[in-house]
Write a structure and sequence with these properties.
alpha+beta, 2 helices, Alpha-Beta Plaits, 69 residues, globular
């Protein structure tokens, strides 16, 4: 299962790295590919994860979620 998270506020690779670390700290997340340039994260999930939990991880890293597909 895959979800795409649209994120505002990332401007560099360091930003993307912080978001990736937070998302991958969620147990159900197998991997997260985060791009500051594209302003999004593509998250591969082992099991369904509530969008709010994904949003909280991005906010914890210091950025804003504008949508989850």
């Amino acid at each position: 299962m895959k979800k795409i998270i649209n994120i505002e506020g990332m401007s560099c690779g360091h930003c993307a790295g912080r978001v990736k670390k937070e998302l991958e700290s969620i147990g159900e997340v197998k991997s997260a590919e985060v791009s500051a340039e594209e302003k999004k994260a593509v998250v591969e999930l082992a099991n369904e994860v509530d969008n709010e939990k994904l949003k909280e991880a991005v906010v914890e890293a210091g950025y804003k979620v504008v949508g989850i597909e």
